[in-house]
Amino acid sequence: MDKIISSSQDKMELLGKSKEELREFCVALGEPAFRGAQIYHALYSERKFDVAQITNLPAALRERLAKEARVTLGKRSAFPRKQAARWTAIFASRLNSD
Question: Which CATH number does the domain housing residue 36 bear?
């Protein structure tokens, strides 16, 4: 009997997993290991963060992943982009001053 997921906290986080971890996860779901490599490629090369967009996976697997897995993107940095660029320039100039 399939595990019933009650909240997003119970779902497997896909983002941050290695290719091998995703392969193992897919095998645990009863899928071929290569599906994990496909998910890895979609997340990290194609930047697809919605499993519904990973169209090289079978529809049934995408539906199952939507129920049993999640992709949580980090919050945007509170550090403003202009300020970050300024600090990067300062740091770089200090590195080059030696």
Answer: 1.10.150.530
Whole-angstrom distance, CA of residue 60 vs CA of residue 63: 5
Domain total for the chain? 1
The span from the CA of 69 to the CA of 51, in Å, is: 9
The token duo for 75 is: 């919050």
Contact assessment for residue 56 and residue 31, using Cβ atoms and an 8 Å cutoff = no
Given a contact cutoff of 8 angstroms between Cβ atoms, the answer to whether 31 and 61 are in contact is yes
pLDDT digits (tens, 9 = 90+) for 37-83: 999 999 999 999 999 999 999 999 999 999 999 999 875 544 455 55
Q: Are strands 12-13 and 69-70 parallel, antiparallel or unpaired?
A: parallel
Helix (H) or strand (E) holding 96: helix 81-96
- How much is the pTM? 0.67
